Amino acid sequence: MAVLNLDIAQRLDIVCRKGDTFEFSFDVGDSLSSLTGTWTMEVRPTEDADQAGDIILSLSASNLPSGVITLTGTNAQMGALVAGLYVYDIQLKTNTTTKTYLYGTFKINDDITTV
Fold it and tell me: Is residue 81 part of a domain?
């Protein structure tokens, strides 16, 4: 039996801290750096949560010629989140396609200092 697997997404679990600035950079390499599109990261309570109101964090970045993509969440955005375990994915959306490249769990650890 043959299998055609079109799922190119790689799993990467992320752990961050509530209230701290979130910055995640990754190099997409030469093959993707020439594409014009937007990289979007969405964090949701569960994989089944698919309504716009289920998104607890949404970050985006434009594709840069350097091939390095940086998604940044401010300390205010991160401070508004509830500590816990969520799921996320990161997709590249162009004019004609959408592909998921990274996915996994998104754990938010509680913070002590809230100043």
Answer: yes
